Amino acid sequence: MKKLNLIGLKFGKLTVISELQERNPHGKVLFKCKCDCGKEVNVIGSKLKNGWSKSCSCLQKETTSNRSKIDNKTHGLSKTSIYNTYHTMISRCNNPNSQSYSNYGGRGIKVCDRWLNSFEDFSNDMGEKPTKEHSIDRINVHGNYEPSNCRWANKIEQENNKTTNVFIEYKSQKYTISELSKLLNINYHTLRNRTIKKNIFTYE
Fold this sequence. Notes:
Oligomer: single chain
Distance between the termini: 91 Å
Radius of gyration: 29 Å
């Protein structure tokens, strides 16, 4: 097998200084390299040739830092509630490891391309949250996250928009138990006992 001679060569920000006598635990050849930042590191020769190692790790840190600065400069909202809402929305639809995935992405709910590709478009379309108590709500609970199907809703509005809600008809209009109890000024549990528990879905 031909011996690697990398001394003096530069790979990314790493300049090869010398070959080491020691080997890594798998018997791979190690080279001492000096990074442009001044730090010295030992790197496997094959990783240098394949482009897997390009710095002492400062390049990755620099890239991450620059991306963070760009995000903050672009919209300045990376630490706000709306930014957290945005990432939670994407996670529950696209990340199988999310605890909420089974109720969203797992049953076919998607985030539209416009929002998936741009937080700024999401922010512009939704606007500011009316209050800290509001969260994103899909008007059609079987529909996707998209401008025409989303709104900011408080807890009561969201409770009235669940897939598990049962509707009671009253004077030709449909209401949830919560809505109708407030309309008629009847205790929620009293109304529920008069209707749902007796399988009555029209209230006179």
